């Protein structure tokens, strides 16, 4: 089964083949987990997101368009679930929050595995990484999701646009601004 | 070229989206502008550090997540179970045919009234707004919930099956439905639903 492409696995899984579905989960569970973890900074909630994402994939096969990449569709489900959670935490949360809306200030601290912080996990994170993680956490909401998708999953601008349902020109502008934001955050610390 | 335009081209370059011609323009600007050279170097370093660091030190999904997902998948459809049951009990197929005929009368009145009907335990916990039935966050419905002729929004927990007949179903991310969540909007589905339900009832009597 390992040689099957995504498309092949998806075809089988849609027909109800449980092994193929399990294989898809294996292939993508860590990626979804990482995406959720970066967005929510909470291990427990990220596990929930992984579970919920695949459950929705399973229940909504009839809504999946085979011309679309499976990963795009899946990330879209996962991203929406994460945004849902963020909204619940902060009812006024908006993907389009303005740049001066310092969404990340609180997150900056919780970003090192917040809920189960142990001396060991803190020890494993170097100072450089902390600076980088804080820079990401400090990104305004408007740019955060896009930059996480960009750096974590190495997706093209077009794919990010498809996932977030945004025109590619908007994604492009936000990647550029997000990158500038991060550069300024790292400027005097790492360069 | 002005530095501002150069900056925009730098980003295109980092996105692998800079056409060759413009790349040459950018290069000639960089050759004479120190501050833009520094900026490009910093931007490149930002990308490099991000790609490397974002993945590093992330915990991976717990090992049992696959099992949890696989065991949480909804069970195979009940109508298939019903078909299997008919195959194992061929003598009763005639009875099933009789039921089918009987159910056509149900079908004819189906859609004739569009009154909202909600069936289930704990109905005092359910909120009804117009034609929308809401299971609010933090509430638990102890068993099966059936909504006919209305939209359903679930934010809380349903401990049994959820069936929405001729209406839409919205499940928030907080929603937990222990059994099958099903929407039925077609006459045919409706017949299946009545048959399987009748049989389940008969079988347990
Ligand atoms: Zn310049």
From TrEMBL, chain A:
One of its GO terms (biological process) is DNA-templated transcription initiation. Residues 24-90 form the RNA polymerase sigma-70 region domain. Gene3D superfamilies: 1.10.1740.10, Winged helix-like DNA-binding domain superfamily/Winged helix DNA-binding domain. One of its GO terms (molecular function) is sigma factor activity. Keywords: Sigma factor, Transcription, Transcription regulation. The keyword DNA-binding does not apply. InterPro entries: RNA_pol_sigma-70-like, RNA_pol_sigma-70_dom, RNA_pol_sigma-W_bacilli, RNA_pol_sigma70_r2, RNA_pol_sigma70_r4_t2, RNA_pol_sigma_r2, RNA_pol_sigma_r3/r4-like, WH-like_DNA-bd_sf. The keyword Repeat does not apply. Belongs to the sigma-70 factor family. ECF subfamily. This is RNA polymerase sigma factor SigW. It comes from Paenibacillus yonginensis.
From TrEMBL, chain B:
Residues 3-37 form the Putative zinc-finger domain. InterPro entries: Anti_sigma_zinc_sf, Znf_put. It holds the Pfam family zf-HC2. It comes from the Bacteria. Belongs to the zinc-associated anti-sigma factor (ZAS) superfamily. Anti-sigma-W factor family. This is Anti-sigma-W factor RsiW. It comes from Paenibacillus yonginensis. The lineage of its organism: Bacteria, Bacillati, Bacillota, Bacilli, Bacillales.
């Amino acid at each position: 089964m390992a040689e099957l492409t995504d498309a092949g696995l998806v075809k089988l899984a849609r027909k109800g083949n449980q092994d193929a579905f399990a294989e898809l989960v294996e292939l993508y569970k860590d990626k979804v987990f990482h995406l959720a973890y970066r967005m929510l900074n909470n291990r427990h909630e990220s596990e929930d997101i992984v579970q919920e994402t695949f459950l929705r994939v399973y229940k909504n096969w009839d809504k999946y368009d085979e011309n679309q990449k499976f990963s795009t569709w899946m990330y879209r489900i996962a991203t929406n679930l994460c945004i849902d959670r963020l909204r619940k935490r902060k009812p006024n949360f908006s993907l389009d929050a303005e740049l001066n809306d310092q969404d990340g200030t609180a997150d900056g601290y919780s970003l090192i595995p917040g809920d189960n912080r142990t001396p060991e996990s803190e020890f494993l994170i170097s100072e450089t990484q902390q600076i980088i993680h804080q820079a990401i956490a400090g990104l305004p909401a408007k740019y955060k999701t896009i930059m996480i998708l960009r750096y974590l999953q190495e997706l093209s601008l077009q794919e990010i646009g498809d996932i977030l349902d945004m025109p590619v020109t908007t994604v492009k502008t936000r990647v550029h601004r997000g990158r500038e934001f991060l550069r300024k955050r790292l400027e005097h610390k790492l360069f | 070229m002005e530095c501002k335009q150069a900056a925009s081209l730098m980003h295109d370059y980092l996105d692998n989206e800079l056409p060759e011609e413009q790349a040459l323009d950018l290069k000639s600007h960089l050759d004479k502008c120190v501050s833009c050279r520094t900026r490009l170097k910093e931007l490149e370093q930002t990308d490099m550090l991000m790609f490397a660091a974002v993945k590093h030190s992330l915990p991976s999904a717990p090992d049992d997540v696959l099992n949890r997902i696989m065991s949480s998948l909804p069970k195979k459809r009940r109508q298939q179970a019903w078909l299997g049951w008919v195959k194992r009990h061929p003598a009763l197929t005639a009875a099933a045919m009789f039921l089918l005929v009987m159910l056509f009368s149900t079908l004819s009145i189906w859609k004739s009234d569009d009154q909202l009907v909600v069936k289930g335990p704990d109905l005092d916990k359910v909120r009804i707004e117009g034609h929308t039935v809401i299971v609010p966050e933090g509430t638990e419905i102890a068993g099966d919930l059936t909504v006919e002729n209305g939209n359903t929004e679930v934010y809380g927990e349903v401990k049994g099956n959820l069936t929405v007949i001729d209406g839409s179903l919205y499940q928030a991310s907080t929603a937990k439905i222990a059994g099958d969540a099903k929407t039925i909007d077609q006459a045919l589905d409706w017949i299946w639903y009545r048959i399987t339900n009748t049989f389940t009832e008969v079988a347990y009597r």
